[in-house]
Structures are given as C-alpha cells and as structure tokens.
Design a protein that fits this description.
The chain has about 60 residues and is mainly alpha-helical. Helix content is about 35%, strand content about 5%.
C-alpha cells in the first residue's frame, strides 16, 4: 500500500499524529498531502519544500 492509496482524511490525521509524536522540532513544509505525509513519515518523497521555498531536508523514519 502507498500513501497515494489512502483517503485524504486519513492522511490529514496521520500528519497530525506524526507532528504530535515528533514534537515541535518538525519543520513546517509545503507540498501535496501525499508527499507531505511521506516526508513526515521519513519515507521517500518529492516536491516538498520549507515555507521559504527551499527543498525540505529528509527526516529519519518515523516508525
């Protein structure tokens, strides 16, 4: 299963959960919901940037 296979409301809830678990050190990023969720989970992603427009630095795997 891929993040793209998951419903939007599930992705939103998963992003919120990951943010809560990772804490305040999680950077604010921009991108599509699927890509941002993959980024936050520490999985391969594309086209995710910081709010300043720079490429987001990879995070360690969440699980």
């Amino acid at each position: 299963m891929r993040f793209a296979d998951l419903p939007e409301d599930f992705l939103t809830a998963l992003q919120d959960d990951i943010h809560a678990k990772r804490g305040a050190a999680t950077p604010a990023v921009r991108g599509g919901s699927v890509e941002v969720t993959a980024y936050l989970a520490g999985r391969p992603y594309t086209d995710v940037t910081t709010v300043d427009g720079f490429p987001a630095e990879p995070l360690t795997p969440w699980l």
